[in-house]
């Protein structure tokens, strides 16, 4: 192997970088093709449309997250630390595109179908947490409150990075193990 990324990897990287810089509407297929070093026709042959390209780029990134982060081992704390760490690393890898995807994707009709990939990942997260609930290790609680409680502190800084209402501090100081321990055991000081 020559160390160069495959054509699809180059296209996906260009797609996500340009969405991060210019948003979904501003990332044109012509600019993506130019950056990836391919002809614009190649994009349409491979992916059918801009929406298909965006979906494929997102799915490619999510597939690596799912493979490494969504594993049941029977150790709830270790599984949640791995999940939180993987999700944080995933959002950091996406960089500025994460905010564009989280805030624009549901409202841009031609690529909104790409949210099905995100919904699938959330369903897998929910299933992992649900399994621990079924086993009596986690208390029964609707996933509508559990998922935001677990991932909100990771997602909120991404969405509000340039206009944060509260000081979010240095993101490198986020400790997944401490976050999961607080999620599992609460924030109250132990009573004496």
From TrEMBL:
One of its GO terms (molecular function) is transcription cis-regulatory region binding. PROSITE patterns: HTH_TETR_2. It comes from the Bacteria. The keyword DNA-binding applies. Pfam families: TetR_N (PF00440). The keyword DNA-binding applies. Keywords: DNA-binding. InterPro entries: Homeodomain-like_sf, HTH-type_TetR-like_transc_reg, HTH_TetR. Residues 5-65 form the HTH tetR-type domain. Coiled coil: none annotated. This is TetR/AcrR family transcriptional regulator. Residues 28-47 bind DNA.
């Amino acid at each position: 192997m020559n160390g160069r990324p495959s054509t699809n990897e180059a296209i996906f990287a260009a797609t996500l970088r340009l969405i991060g810089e210019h948003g979904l509407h501003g990332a044109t297929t012509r600019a993506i093709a130019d950056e990836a070093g391919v002809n614009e026709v190649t994009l349409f042959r491979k992916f059918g449309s801009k929406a298909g390209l965006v979906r494929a780029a997102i799915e490619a990134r999510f597939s690596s997250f799912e493979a490494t982060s969504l594993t049941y081992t029977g150790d709830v704390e270790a599984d949640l630390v791995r999940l939180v760490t993987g999700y944080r690393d995933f959002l950091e890898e996406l960089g500025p595109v994460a905010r564009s995807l989280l805030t624009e994707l549901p409202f841009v009709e031609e690529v909104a179908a790409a949210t099905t990939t995100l919904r699938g990942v959330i369903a897998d997260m929910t299933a992992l947490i649900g399994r621990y609930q079924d086993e009596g290790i986690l208390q029964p609680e609707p996933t509508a409150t559990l998922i935001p409680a677990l991932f909100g502190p990771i997602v909120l800084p991404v969405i509000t990075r340039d206009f944060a209402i509260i000081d979010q501090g240095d993101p490198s100081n986020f400790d997944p193990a401490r976050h999961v321990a607080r999620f599992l055991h609460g924030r109250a000081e132990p009573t004496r």
